[in-house]
Specification:
alpha+beta, tt1808, chain A, six-stranded mixed β-sheet
């Protein structure tokens, strides 16, 4: 049985697809989701369509600026919601391909993390500074507090994002700037389509690209953990 998914906007409030550059100091807002999505599922060639809400009512009714208390009160949501300087970055739930890549990347990092007494985790609340909480696809941590609602940037040795066409500007510009400014040493960026792996190291308050690994090649990671990562294995 072949199953495919597509998502698109339905009538209603217009979305804002603007990208906020990292030098915008206050209330950076990027809406890449809307009140509802239309989903098309092809089952053995027959298309079935339905709609469903993806944003909790509290998001639509909360006035600006958003506080950490407002944000954390949302709890778990079906879409990804991040807090940036009193505004929200809102994105759709991750695709299956995206999740497979994240899972295999975590598996590749896990043995080296165990040896180095580090902990790899998938998407979590990462507090970069007061009023700025992002949800990276993965982190490698030095310390783990099972009761914390957020992980502090000081505990993160490496942060990773699997970037898709609709998140490329955010992952390569906005988040890259914020992660470096928060002092996170390593940034791993994987292209969801090509599987190319970009490794960045912090230099002051920005990142410098250290390597690009494409299909047929292998990334030999030595810091903060030892791991061999091959692009083709990320979908294996």
């Amino acid at each position: 049985m072949k199953i495919s998914y597509k998502a698109g906007p339905v009538s209603g409030p217009q979305r804002n697809d603007s990208t906020t550059p990292p030098d915008t100091p206050r209330r950076a807002i990027q809406h890449r989701n809307y009140r509802t999505h239309r989903w098309s599922i092809a089952l053995d060639g027959q298309v079935v369509r339905f709609t469903r809400p993806v944003l909790p009512p509290d998001v639509l009714g909360n006035p600006l600026p958003w506080t950490e208390q407002d944000y954390l009160a949302l709890g778990e949501t079906t879409c990804r919601i991040e807090l940036v300087d009193g505004g929200l970055l809102i994105g759709p739930p991750p695709a299956v391909r995206h999740q497979v890549i994240v899972g295999n990347l975590l598996a590749a990092l896990r043995p080296g993390c165990a040896t180095a007494s580090l902990t790899p985790l998938p998407v979590i609340n990462l507090r970069l500074e007061a009023g700025r909480i992002l949800n990276p696809d993965l982190v490698v941590l030095t310390d783990l507090d099972f009761h914390a609602l957020c992980v502090p940037a000081a505990a993160v040795q490496l942060v990773g994002e699997v970037t898709a066409p609709h998140t490329a500007a955010t992952d390569k510009v906005l988040k890259m700037h914020y992660y470096a400014a928060a002092g996170i040493e390593w940034y791993l960026l994987i292209d969801q389509e090509s599987l190319a792996i970009h490794l960045y190291q912090r230099q002051g308050t920005h990142y410098v690209e250290r390597s690009v690994t494409k299909a047929g090649e292998a990334l030999e990671l030595t810091e903060p953990v030892r791991a061999t990562i091959r692009p083709e294995d990320l979908l294996g």
